[in-house]
């Protein structure tokens, strides 16, 4: 059955959500979460969300959520991004790690890690990529050798978003030195203050230092920190890779909000005398249409998931679509701004305090992280369309 | 909020798909070119499964269903490459006749006893299958008329697609029956919607045909479909159809929904056609490129869908036209 109207229950939920967000929105914009001060400001915002019951609405109440269904979560995300509240420093943990803990964690792991993640007590970073294992993730070399009830980790991880100040890192490491490729890997949770762990911030393209590389030198963690079975790390990790590419990481709400801001920017520039030719106007409208396409495709997918279906390789379709939509949207903004596009936030003539340039530079990372779009297109071709691997 | 088709809706779509696969093969389409453009027996068979009666009320023997029930069957019409004016008849003429106070004509059309086509406003200047239609639903000065075939003057405007026999149609309103109560704006939105649905079907057909071809065609000792350069192009077509389809279904729902205003409805329909036209344009380009020279031949059946794709992409307003309408609604 198809009914695209929101029921009164969902409308009431939307109102509740919107009211809370507007009532609790910080007075001033926070600093970037990829600076030391901004990181802690964002952690405080996580606490505000948690205290209000809005940090992880889709989780069970026992871990700090409010048992929202998928539609409520999508509505929450729409309201979240349109209200203009700060971004989520907890996103890596909440969207990438938490689904794996729900699926594979022991009762002790769930009870310990999930409430702390919900409250912003523990902020997580992802430690998957290595200097020689990017798109080819199965080439992981970081080793964790079992010694009694501990793993001894040696090696290097890199490109860890929020890695510079995160409290914990979720890693994939090689626990069987003789195994190759996808075998002999283990999913391991590592506290950032473990002896033998060192991290070094990497200056990102936007100049901010939250990105990090992480070095392990005889770093010891308890075997209880393995998530899922020893040696099963690939399967455990891939179960979450779907959520990263698809629904969990990038809900439509943020793109709908961005497309609406772009529309407003275009109309404001137009009324202040800028000439917007028909081609540029088409681009603005196209960004808006694409955000609607992503929204309805997501509702379409969510309806299927609510009926018990699972999201498989189609997640790759979503990842390519949202990352390229976001990039096009911001590229359009840069074209609208013309010679003001390059201005830094403190330049007298900067528009929206340089937010469009920041957004553009950030959007450029979308087709790279969470599996490059080249890899995603291979997955679509091979697993969705059924084309031969070789 | 629920956005998933019911088992009954799936079954109806599958019935139409199977019937078309059986009765409307590429061979049957080509054979129709040498005749009057019809596939023998097809119209009656589609009438029997109820395709022509979906949008007619029960009072005229219709199924009293909505655009959302017809949108995927019409997608199948595109997928099969049907050379008859089914979308125009079932999607636009039947409800217009019913809403316009012509129950007798509506009943005959819903039963599939007569064949109708349409000519409306800017997007529908060239009337499909006017030579074989018994009745045309035409727009004149913002009003709709039922025009019998006996009173029309035709000027053929041959199309690149031999299945699309187009004509300019002239008639005297004195010879026509005004369809009072039928909204030309709604009729036009339905025409755009069902053209978008067919674009989607054509794009999917082109994709399926190309995936099959590149999986079997070998060069340098392996299937050409194993090369990334080919894979990535086909993935892009799959992405385009994946994200166009929900907007087309959403527009189908909007037309009948009480909660949508005229402006919402028009914007939803235009968004649907813009993305569906873009999707089929891309599908045409990629399908031909990935087939290579064989796709460029008149003998090979790919041409049936390439030409339908080119035609439908711009019929009832191309992507630019509809994006422009969306721009206006957004105040840009």
Give an overview in words.
The complex is a heterodimer of chains A (390) and B (332). In chain A, 46% of the residues lie in helices and 14% in strands. Chain A starts with a strand and ends in a 6-residue tail after the last helix. In chain A, helix 3 (70-82) runs parallel beside helix 7 (252-271) and helix 4 packs across helix 6. Chain A has eleven helices and nine strands. Chain A folds into three domains: 8-118, Butyryl-Coa Dehydrogenase, subunit A, domain 1 (Orthogonal Bundle), CATH 1.10.540.10; 124-231, Butyryl-CoA Dehydrogenase, subunit A, domain 2 (Beta Barrel); 246-384, Butyryl-CoA Dehydrogenase, subunit A, domain 3 (Up-down Bundle), CATH 1.20.140.10. In chain A, a hairpin with a 2-residue loop joins strand 3 and strand 4 (150-160). Chain A has helices spanning 8-24, 36-52, 70-82, 91-104, 107-118, 233-245, 252-271, 278-306, 315-337, 355-363, 373-384; strands at residues 2-3, 124-127, 143-147, 150-160, 168-174, 185-191, 197-201, 212-222, 226-227. The model of chain A has no long low-confidence stretch (mean pLDDT 94). Chain A is globular and about 70 Å long. In chain B, the strands form three sheets. Chain B has a four-stranded mixed beta sheet with strand order 2-4-5-8, covered by helices on one side. Chain B has a three-stranded antiparallel beta sheet with strand order 3-7-6, with no helix packed on it. Helix content of chain B is 56%, strand content 11%. The chains are: A alpha+beta (390), B alpha+beta (332). At the A-B interface, strand 1, helix 7, helix 8, helix 9 and helix 11 of A face strand 1, helix 7, strand 10, helix 8 and helix 9 of B.
